[in-house]
Specification:
The chain has 239 residues and is an alpha/beta fold. The chain has helices at residues 23-38, 45-60, 68-80, 86-96, 112-119, 136-144, 169-179, 193-202, 229-238; strands at 9-12, 125-128, 155-156, 186-190, 206-210, 226-227. The protein has 2 domains: 9-21 and 107-238, 3-Layer(aba) Sandwich (Rossmann fold); 24-103. 40% of the residues are buried.
């Protein structure tokens, strides 16, 4: 195993890392679900998809001056051409109800709970470092499909509590500041070469690429540690 500094915190990506999924299929069903939920309130499905994508792009380019939630809705209403105060509340209804149906688009990972538990050993902090483009309710719903909950993590990133998104290295730096652990003492476990490996390593974190649902980058090739999720568990046991 590669020699690494003392690890005091472990960050886990969610989609494709802890939670098996084909992200393109999941995204397609997500957009279908939320667009259908909003349609009766005067926003056509394709408009809803377009406005949501515009809001997401704005979050990805967030400069840190506002939360991702603020950036998303500011952009959404700019695209819509008017501000409808009821829309965020209506969207929240979808996350508390219709979003649950998306579990059918994901797989099972019987090692997820054990990996998170093992990561906590020796007093280490554990972070769910999933891209904060969703509200907290959606983040917690997805981890519940694995038998996990908010109490299993020291921090769960969401669009309410984050000011950056992957692949901005500042996303990882903000987490390190929040949990009080230096980047060089943190380990990022993820499946995306650009969003997880490149961005986190640029922020100074040690990284491990999960290859089961690996997302490759055209412009960056991760040459560091990698392996299946089962190998992640073995690696954590040796920390």
């Amino acid at each position: 195993m590669t020699v690494r500094p003392e690890i005091k915190a472990v960050f886990f990506d969610l989609d494709g890392t802890l939670l098996p999924m084909d992200q393109s299929v999941f995204a397609k069903e997500y957009f279908k679900g939320i667009a259908g939920h909003i349609a009766p309130y005067g926003i056509a499905p394709q408009q809803m998809i377009d406005f949501t994508l515009a809001g997401t792009a704005a979050m990805v380019h967030n400069d840190g001056s506002q939360t991702n939630e603020q950036v998303f809705w500011r952009t959404f209403f700019k695209e819509l051409g008017e501000e409808k105060e009821e829309i965020p509340e209506i969207a929240a209804e979808f996350y508390y109800d219709g979003f649950k149906a998306l579990k059918a688009q994901t797989g099972e990972n019987p090692l997820a709970c054990e990996a998170v538990k093992t990561a906590h050993c020796n007093g280490r902090k554990v972070v769910l470092a999933t891209n904060p483009v969703f509200p907290m309710v959606a983040q917690l719903e997805r981890i519940s499909w694995l038998g996990l909950s908010e109490k299993d993590f020291d921090l769960v990133t969401s669009f309410e509590n984050s000011h950056y998104c992957k692949p901005n290295p500042d996303y990882y730096r903000e987490i390190c500041e929040k949990i009080g652990v230096a980047p060089e003492n943190c380990l990022m476990v993820g499946n995306d070469e650009r969003e997880d490996m490149k961005a986190a390593s640029e922020a100074g974190l040690t990284c491990f690429l999960v290859t089961d649902y690996r997302i490759m980058s055209k412009h960056f090739v991760w040459t560091g540690e990698r392996g299946s999720f089962e190998q992640v568990l073995h690696m954590l046991e040796r920390l």
